[in-house]
Amino acid sequence: MTINQIVRNTVERLKAEGKVWTPDAYSETFCSEAKKAGFAVEDCSGIDRFVPLMDKKTLDEIKQYRVRTTAELIRFLISKLNRLNPSEASILVEAFSGLAKKMAESIDVLHNAEASALAKKTIATLDERGGSTQIELLKQAWTNFLSIYDDSFLMKLSGFGSVDTANLRNTIENLKFQVNPGSGSDHSKIVQMLISSLVPSIAPKMDDSITELSKKLSNNPSYIETEGFEKELKTAIAMRIALDKQSVEDMVNTLDALLEKLSVQLIELIERSESSSSEIREVKRDLEALETNRPTDFKTAHKRLYAIASTLEEKVEVLSKDLKVHNETVTDMGKKIAALESELAAATQASREDFLTKLFNKRAIEEYLNLKESEYERHTHPYCIAMLDLDHFKSVNDTYGHEAGDAVLIAFAKILKLEARATDIVGRFGGEEFLAILGDTDLEGAKVFCEKVRAHVEAAHFMYQGQRIAVSVSIGVAERMAYPSMKALLNGADERLYDAKRKGRNRVEPA
After folding, report:
1. pLDDT block averages, 10 residues each, the chain of length 511
2. What is the pTM for the complete model shown?
3. Which of 30, 210, 386, 510 is the most buried (most CB within 10 A)?
């Protein structure tokens, strides 16, 4: 190995160890690499070549002060020559060391994490009587701390009082926080959410009972703590649902009337036409069939009307003048049909989707369960269900608030969607309990899915306003083939979930 290779190895080692490139550090690393390569470099022999020339007392002092390099030896000898009283110098060094240690201990109790960490490191170095290289590194670390320290974060408190950057105690004592009078809970936020949820999603107006309850809550948010509030809320919710149902029924009746009117008008136009060809008669029969077999939903009505309109456009050119007269009426009808269809689709989606997690709600889950059960009874298609319940979820709400609990539910729903297959059905069954329907899956396959969800939740970072919330999930899984009925299957999954809770939570049962 050449001297150039030793130099390259020295540079790479300094980079890898992250040392400050001082002459002493470079010399020490270079000599170590030279010795490893079997090179004898005179400068690397350090103070060994001078040891035979020194008396025993000087050697003892060199060992005491841990002098290792030639440069350290020269500084030591110069200091020794300049000292008139060695004992006084030793006392002075000890005094400076003690002073530095006390200063570091004082810094350690101040309210700054970076300074505290450096102070602890300084105390440890002084206790171990570290060499000049360690002290130089500490000095550089303190220099870096002073150069980048920024106390502008204190200005965030300026809205609550004067900020004294030279005296943190004065700043804290001068802060003034405005406290809302009264010791009762502030229900204003949840009241606003309740009022918004009571507004019908489809119906154009509200019932008097809903309006009255909304006014009570707006005027007195603490009304939700009264005994009669729950009964009034249930009545208002039932009325809101009834209003939406009635509105949908009115839309269907309006669409039915539009179809009937359109059918009658087009048939009259065709009958008045002088050229009643076979194609026109086919269109007439289609329209009469539409009148006889009325469609039951917006989508079917839209398709059938579109097919009829296409046939008329292609084959009934004779009626173009008459159709232009009625074009405005037909266009208006089409717009109304499209609007009603869109509103019905939105209402259908809302009735099957959980408003918070955007998963299927309990009603939709029960519909899919009935479909899976029908397939099982007809064709013996296997399936499993898994009941999933977030552990200690009440403590999350109690500790961090209901908004944090909602954030956890939303994040958990995303994990369920991510781990589920395209053919799996996942939904919120109520509160913090979720249910997954795993089609064409045996018990072993279902346990694999459940374990993936459990591990994903355990490893996930559930964050809310900068705080990490520890979350785990317990899962009970059951296979349809092992139970005599769907109801027994649900009870079985629920019992397995209870077993998982009883055995310590954060687990899948049967394990």
Report:
1. 79 81 77 79 71 81 79 78 61 67 68 76 76 75 72 74 74 65 61 70 69 79 79 78 72 65 62 55 63 58 62 58 65 75 65 90 94 93 96 94 94 96 94 95 96 96 89 97 95 96 95 54
2. 0.37
3. 386
Q: List, in sequence order, every residue forming a beta bridge with 428; answer none if it has no partner.
A: 434
Q: Indicate if 88 and 127 belong to the same structural domain.
A: yes
Q: Tokens 């939105």 identify what position?
A: 346
Amino acid in position 260: E
- Are 220 and 358 part of one and the same domain? no
326 and 379 together in one domain? no
**Phi–psi pair at 122, nearest 5 degrees:** -65, -45
**Three-class DSSP category at 473:** strand
Shared domain for 240 and 265, answered yes or no, is no
For residue 503, how far is the Cα from the chain centroid? 28
- Asked if residue 368 is part of any domain, the answer here is yes
Amino acid 347: pLDDT: 60
Cβ contacts of 2 within 8 Å, gap of 6 or more: none
- E strands, 369-458, in order: 383-390, 425-430, 433-439
104 three-state secondary structure: helix
125 contacts: CB under 8 Å, gap ≥ 6: 134, 135, 138
Q: How far is CA 337 from the centre of its chain?
A: 40
Q: Tell me whether residue 7 is exposed, middle or buried, using C-beta atoms within 10 angstroms of its C-beta: 0 to 12, 13 to 18, 19 or more.
A: middle
pLDDT digits (tens, 9 = 90+) for 246-271: 776 766 666 666 666 666 666 666 56
